[in-house]
């Protein structure tokens, strides 16, 4: 049996109760192997457990939170798109750049040209940046290969990251991200191909969920439905890039399929919000893309709150619209740009981020949860959204073991 470890002399933001932050001013954790077996006020430490404690760690009054969850990233790709950033500053829109052959297609070309080793090396550096700020679980989407072989290659690199680095990786198949050049003018044929590739990718163990880009410059609701039906036939959960640039009714469509999450949502309408609530679908807010694209249409935060739709926060790291690698910065942006409270933002990057990935064994500090937690040189969790431009993460525990990056 694994050793019982006491982590003591800490302030806990457990995020487990209706009290603000699930706050415990003089807290402690007991872990055994990869699991938390007890969390709470140090004065209430179960006496039956104390004779069996084999290790003690004095945290010196530091702040503990659950490990951070980045539930929407595109970490595996080749090249970069700084030139497009400059074009947008000169007045070109995201849609204009995409229709002129830039955007996602330019990254597809660079990704196809990159070797497996190059893709793994660049993705590893990006992952390590996230990990250094306390990220213990990350979702990685494909979508920059757009051929059967290259989508598989990107998903395989993502799986390798999870096998070689001390954090959890969930992979999402985003073949329906854009139409590749070889399918130009044949969008329906490409959707047929995306669906045809899926069973083999699943058999190879490369797919945890299926996503699509339902948008004017992406795929129609009818085409998205076709992808979702293929996923449902294989028992795979779905997610959706929905209502980012226009209202396509994608969120309501995704909710029909019990989607884990709908992401972006700047143009989300009331019908979509009600459908998401009924389906238990998480709203993933991506303030980095909103900021980088200089968007002015805010997601309907008040309506999401009013209907009780859980809100997650993620980096959306990608080379075109959100090249940031700091989930802590996204917490600050979620508060300053979207007016979330600091507690909403932290819950968005922990328990609700985990829920957006279909994971219910992490995101809070409670008995039975994975022993994924962060130790911060901070006095209170609201400081996580307050400070930006530096990293207060002192140490990170993943599955009960201290991680070095």
Commentary on this structure:
The chain is of the alpha/beta class and 405 residues long. Helix content is 36%, strand content 23%. The protein has 15 helices and 15 strands. The strands form 2 sheets. It has an 8-stranded parallel beta sheet with strand order 5-6-7-8-9-10-11-12. The chain has a 7-stranded mixed beta sheet with strand order 3-2-1-4-13-14-15, with no helix packed on it. The protein is globular and about 70 Å long. The two termini are 28 Å apart. The relative contact order is 0.15. The mean pLDDT is 96.
On the 0 to 100 scale, the average pLDDT is: 96
Number of strands: 15
Separation of the first and last Cα atoms: 28 Å
Task: Report the principal-axis shape.
Answer: globular
Output the radius of gyration.
21 Å
Major beta-sheet overview? 8 strands, parallel
Share of residues in helices = 25-40%
Layout of SSEs?
Layout: E1 4-13, E2 23-32, E3 35-41, E4 53-66, E5 68-70, H1 82-89, H2 94-99, H3 104-113, H4 116-132, E6 135-141, H5 148-164, E7 168-176, H6 187-203, E8 209-214, H7 221-233, E9 239-242, H8 250-256, E10 261-264, H9 270-279, E11 282-285, H10 287-292, H11 301-307, E12 311-313, H12 327-336, H13 342-348, H14 351-356, E13 373-376, H15 383-386, E14 393-398, E15 401-403
Parallel strand pairs: 1-4, 5-6, 6-7, 7-8, 8-9, 9-10, 10-11, 11-12
Antiparallel strand pairs: 1-2, 2-3, 4-13, 13-14, 14-15
Helix pairs in contact: 4-5, 6-7, 8-9, 12-13
